[in-house]
Amino acid sequence: MAGALSGPEIERLVQLLSRLPGLGPRSARRAVLFLLKKKEALLVPLTAALEEAGRKIKSCQTCGNLDSAETCSVCTDPRRDSGLICVVEDVADLWALERAGVFRGRYHVLGGTLSALDGRGPEQLNLAGLVERVKAGGVREVVLGLNATVEGQTTAHYVTDLIAGSGVSVTRLAHGVPVGGELDYLDEGTLAAAFAARRAM
Amino acid sequence: MAGALSGPEIERLVQLLSRLPGLGPRSARRAVLFLLKKKEALLVPLTAALEEAGRKIKSCQTCGNLDSAETCSVCTDPRRDSGLICVVEDVADLWALERAGVFRGRYHVLGGTLSALDGRGPEQLNLAGLVERVKAGGVREVVLGLNATVEGQTTAHYVTDLIAGSGVSVTRLAHGVPVGGELDYLDEGTLAAAFAARRAM
Predict the structure, then answer these.
(1) DSSP class of residue B120?
(2) CB–CB contact B69 A7 (8 Å)
(3) CB-based contact A173:A153 (threshold 8 Å)
(4) Which of B11, B16, B94 is most worth mutating to test chain A (most A CB atoms within 10 A of its CB)?
(5) Under CATH, to which class is A77-200 assigned?
(6) Strand pairing partners for B88?
């Protein structure tokens, strides 16, 4: 094995890198080799960047986004509408919405979904923070940007109940045919949702 | 963009990670998020492992393998046949042969192939070291474990000429049908080589 060959340092690096999503043991080994070949150009700056990110990046105390500031740049941006909060499951979803550039309000990252199967209850999610923000006033609408999965929708219902009675309107993203999607390839659930929500031309 | 969102530290990390083979910008972003979520369990140990590897791992002064020792563990292993040298293009090839566990001699890593197109001449490769090792005596056979590409085979001929006259026999890996391979999917070059090298049952 290469382990016996090249000492424990390389093996340890391969083992850690192969835990990243999208990298298996084989591609992690290729990546390690690439890093060791480009020591000055890549390995050294990557080490420094990881160290800096590990030291500086934390969860925003308001919304749960990741940022180097205590309160993230979305929460402090005065140009963003603080009356609109989009609730997402994960920071990755927040990034996806920002990439699309379609939302100019603020976010709230739950950090997961309710899941009876995985034993995740409401106390595991960042729900108290959301209720607090809604109670603090100034919020007109909470948009549920949760995944259209069973867990996502269960969570959406739970959040709706939680906010009900506060006078804040709760909406969710529309279901339907994805732009560029072909009917032939869509599941029945999507087609049914698209039919139910059909609109006048 | 997420860059404006999450500060320059995350963007820098994404940019560096996306230079690794097998990781595009999108999977690098996913990896960064994963790292930041598992700070203590993954980001911190990975930073330490990279730092250690960057500091300790170097090219073996004899064969070009990567190791934390000046002379690598393959070159110092007394159980390995020092009369046999397998010449490979890259450390990745050395690792692949070690994984297969089919060779118990030593290696010589050229660090590339000759390529007129890419302007790589003999002086860019670790050829002087090979000639030195052959001249030093004790070597019976040099096995060329080079890729069956145009560049690999050009390099193989060059190395053969270089060693010719030293009394050391030069061999190359066999070409043929890969084990588990189906004829229907093989190219003509491989089939021709397999025919030419056919053996009695």
Answers:
(1) B
(2) yes
(3) no
(4) B16
(5) alpha beta
(6) B109
The verdict on a CB contact (< 8 Å) between B10 and A34 is no
Rounded-to-integer distance, Cα B35 and Cα A175, Å: 32
Q: Do A5 and B44 make contact, defined as CB atoms within 8 angstroms?
A: no
Q: Provide the residue type at B68 as one letter.
A: S
- Chain B residues touching residue A54 (CB < 8 angstroms): 39, 43-44, 47
Dist CA A101 CA B1 (whole Å): 8
**A10: which 2 tokens?**
């390389």
Q: In what helix (H) or strand (E) does residue A86 lie, and over which residues does it extend? A: strand A84-88
- Cross-chain CB nearest to B73 (options A7, A36, A94): A7
Domains in chain A: boundaries: 8-56, 77-200
- Is the pLDDT score of B133 beyond 90? yes
Count of alpha carbons within 13 angstroms of residue A100, beta-carbon side? 8
What is d(CA A117, CA A121) in angstroms, rounded to the nearest whole number? 10
A111-136 pLDDT, tens digit each: 999 998 888 999 999 999 999 999 99
Query: Is the four-CA dihedral A66, A70, A71, A72 of positive or negative sign?
Result: negative
| Res. B5: pLDDT tops 60 | no
DSSP letter, residue B178: P
ipTM metric: 0.78
Mutation target vs A (from B14, B17, B20; most A CBs, 10 A cutoff): B20
Give the percent of chain A with pLDDT over 70.
97
What band does A62 get if pLDDT is binned at 50, 70 and 90? very high
Contacts of B35 in chain A (CB under 8 A): 20, 50, 53
pTM recorded for the entire structure: 0.78
Domain A8-56 has CATH 1.10.1660.10: no
Q: Please, which residues have CB within 8 angstroms of residue B101's CB and are 6 or more apart in sequence?
A: none
Span B174-195, pLDDT tens digits = 888 888 888 888 888 888 888 8
Cβ neighbour number for residue B125 with a 10 Å cutoff: 21
- Would you call A165 helix, strand, or coil by DSSP? coil
pLDDT digit string, tens, across residues B80-95:
999 999 999 999 999 8
